[in-house]
């Protein structure tokens, strides 16, 4: 997905090498904005060979591009990758916070919901703020 300087790639689909090649193409292309952010979801799922391609891309991309590696397990990110990153650890939301966040997301998208369904989605989300909305959108 690419939108005005924001690109998101997910490597959890087992196509890490292909995604790494996509990343090279994206990183070398001219951005539409002064800055570009490339978010790589599930970066801890990269195969070692694909991660090496990613590292080379991180090192050779102009400074107007910021990479954000998203991972559940820091151990899944190779040490060479960790050494090139600033690491922020985020905690999952508690049940009440997660429900409040889910309500706000659903309301902002004008989605009508049942409180019991919201409770189930929040419980399934394991504290991940956007998970209830994502699950709802997949189910539709």
Produce the secondary structure layout.
Blueprint: E1 2-3, E2 6-10, H1 16-28, E3 36-41, H2 48-60, E4 65-69, H3 79-82, H4 95-108, H5 115-125, H6 131-139
Parallel strand pairs: 2-3, 3-4
Antiparallel strand pairs: 1-2
Structure description:
By secondary structure, the chain is α/β, with parallel strands linked by helices. The protein folds into two domains: 2-82, Rossmann fold (3-Layer(aba) Sandwich); 95-139. The protein is built from six helices and four strands. The chain has helices spanning 16-28, 48-60, 79-82, 95-108, 115-125, 131-139, and strands at 2-3, 6-10, 36-41, 65-69. A four-stranded mixed β-sheet has the order 1-2-3-4, covered by helices on one side. The model has no long low-confidence stretch (mean pLDDT 79).
Helical content stands at 40-55%
CATH class of the largest domain: Alpha Beta
Q: Look at the structure and name the CATH superfamily of the largest domain.
A: P-loop containing nucleotide triphosphate hydrolases
Instruction: Quote the average pLDDT.
Output: 79
Structural class: alpha/beta
**CATH architecture annotation of the largest domain:** 3-Layer(aba) Sandwich
Tell me the Rg in angstroms.
17 Å
Regions with pLDDT < 50 over 5+ consecutive residues? none
The tally of beta strands, per DSSP, is: 4
Give the number of helices. 6
> How would you sum up the global shape?
elongated
Number of domains: 2
| Through-space gap between termini | 20 Å
């Amino acid at each position: 997905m690419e939108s005005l300087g924001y690109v998101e790639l997910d490597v959890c689909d087992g196509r890490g090498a292909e995604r790494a090649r996509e990343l090279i193409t994206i990183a070398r292309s001219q951005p539409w904005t002064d800055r570009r952010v490339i978010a790589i979801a599930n970066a801890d799922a990269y195969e070692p060979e694909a991660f090496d391609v990613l590292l080379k891309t991180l090192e050779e991309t102009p400074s107007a591009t910021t990479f954000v590696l998203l991972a559940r397990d820091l151990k899944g990110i190779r040490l060479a990758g960790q050494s090139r990153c600033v690491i922020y650890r985020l905690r999952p939301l508690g049940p009440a916070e997660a429900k409040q966040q889910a309500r706000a997301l659903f309301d902002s998208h004008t989605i009508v919901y049942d409180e019991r369904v919201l409770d189930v989605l929040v419980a399934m989300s394991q504290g991940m703020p956007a998970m209830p909305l994502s699950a709802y959108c997949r189910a539709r």
